[in-house]
Amino acid sequence: SLLQEIMLGSLRQLTKFRAPIATCYTSARANSTAGVSQAERKWDLVAAVCIERPPYITPKLLEIEQKVMATLDEKEFEVSMMNDHEIRHKRDLEKQERKRKGEDVDDGEAVITALDLEDSWKKAAEGFTPASTSTEADVKSVKRELDRPLRLLAKYKLGTEIHWDLPFIVNNRGETLRDTAERAIKQRLGDNLDVKVLGNAPWSFYQYKHPKHYQEKTGSFGVKVWIYKGILMNNFHDDVAVNLEGEELLDYQWATRDEMQKLLDKDTYRAIDNMLHAED
What is residue 238's three-state secondary structure? Predict the structure, then answer.
């Protein structure tokens, strides 16, 4: 009958949609399972500190900076008033001119002219030797590259691998990342460093996954590293020796920007580079 044909046609249409619906349902279950697996992954939270030793002396001026300084000096000389020494020299010249014309000039006692003073200053300056702005200190000393900032790097031995990194330590439950950063300085580097951590928020971030065998062994999927910035506050003449704490810490050095790029992993350096100002 006509009713039976309509019902059979509708049944055939439902059969066509059955496979796509089942596929979508299976895909949704798979995505849900993946989402749960993703949420169950355990990440280690780590706070690292980029400790910077600022330049001790003014960096050499660029060519454009030298031109600007020369222009400003010339302008200042043109519009400035005479100082006491220049006024004294002008009076000396006026006296000499009056003497040359035969006028009476009362000098009183023996007078030291401005030119006499200049000669004595030049003679005293000949014996002065300025201190060198470049040193041959080793990479563990903060008294190198005096006109450029340096950052502290530590050499770690994790398992069988040896690599350079910032001073870091794993976050404890209930501890803020700022507190972890402060603890990393004290526990990793000793008490000789006076470091001021800037701000409560990290300056940069990166993450990496552990190898499969390490994930199975520790249950940790990877590490999320939050980088803080610290400024070395020690005086120039202070002993800034670093006392590395922990068997995994092998060595340290105060590195320039170029040295950091050569020593650090590319992901680590990229994260640090994002938080630093250009030095050129």
Answer: coil
Q: Which of 245, 223, 249, 234 is nearest to 153 (CA)?
A: 249
Query: Look-up: residue for tokens 């790097």?
Result: 153
What is the Cα–Cα distance from 30 to 40, expressed in whole angstroms? Answer: 15
Q: CB of 279 within 8 A of CB of 259? A: no
**pLDDT tens-digit readout, 192-217:** 889 999 999 999 999 988 888 888 88
pLDDT at 180: 95
Q: What is the pLDDT of residues 105-140, one digit of tens each?
A: 776 555 788 888 999 999 988 888 877 777 777 888
Q: Whose CA is closest to 47, among 156, 172, 181?
A: 181
Is the separation of the CB atoms in 49 and 167 below 8 Å?
Answer: yes
DSSP secondary structure letter of residue 199: -
**Rounded-to-integer distance, Cα 219 and Cα 127, Å:** 70
Q: Judging by DSSP bridges, how do beta strands 222-232 and 43-53 pair with one another?
A: parallel
* Integer Cα distance of 190 and 188 in angstroms: 6
Q: How far is CA 47 from the centre of its chain?
A: 16
Cβ–Cβ under 8 Å, residues 146 and 57: yes
Phi-psi region of 106 (alpha: psi -120 to 50; beta: other; left: phi over 0): beta
